[in-house]
Amino acid sequence: MSVGKTSLINRYANSEFKEIMQSTTGICNVETIRSIDGSQLGSSKPVTILAKLWDTVGQEKFDSIPKRYYKGVDGILLVYDITDSTTFDKINYWMKQIAQNVSSIPIIMVGNKTDIESLRAMEYQEGKNKATELGLEFYEVSAKSGEGVNEAFDQLIIRALQNSPQKLNPKAKKNSRKNKVVLKSKKKKNEKKAKCKC
């Protein structure tokens, strides 16, 4: 069962949800421009960011595919499905994979699908306790309703920028009327909607 990573990215980047989405079988990336609270970044004004979001496969048989994409990653959203305990049980596995490939980057643990409360298999406190054990921040969200999605992604971006303050590029400030931060790559100005580049 899918934990809903693609749906979460689609909700965050495009403010939309599709009931049926094709399962990811490789790597997709989406670029999105966001305006986030600058108070945690030493700015009294909102900070505009160009973020690149990578959607990786979540099945062990494909675990060799994402490894090359760990290089240069700024932060990780670790997602499980609150209606499927087996996805929660794999958190330790993925933390081990992350530890083997990257270090000293922010990781936020996310329990998705709070809109299906009647099918909940993992309680909020179980997720919270696991995140505390691993030293991670924790959110429960719903890609379908949008609840908590912006908060989780925005917080990951803020933590990534706090971890790598050089990303707040002075040159970007000169070339924009706002504080503009570029994470990973450029985006065409006339691109209306972020699409998965599979």
From TrEMBL:
Organism placement in taxonomy: Eukaryota, Sar, Alveolata, Ciliophora, Intramacronucleata
SMART domains: RAB (SM00175), RAN (SM00176), RAS (SM00173), RHO (SM00174)
Coiled coil: none
Domain of life from the UniProt record: Eukaryota
Biased composition (Basic residues): 170-198
Cited PROSITE patterns: ARF (PS51417), RAB (PS51419), RAS (PS51421), RHO (PS51420)
Location of the region described as Disordered in the Swiss-Prot/TrEMBL record: 165-198
Keywords of this entry: GTP-binding, Nucleotide-binding
Protein name in UniProt: Uncharacterized protein
Gene3D superfamilies from the UniProt entry: P-loop containing nucleotide triphosphate hydrolases
GO terms of molecular function: GTP binding; GTPase activity
Claim: GTP-binding is one of the keywords in the record: yes
InterPro entries: P-loop_NTPase (IPR027417), Rab (IPR050227), Small_GTP-bd (IPR005225), Small_GTPase (IPR001806)
Keyword field contains Nucleotidyltransferase: no
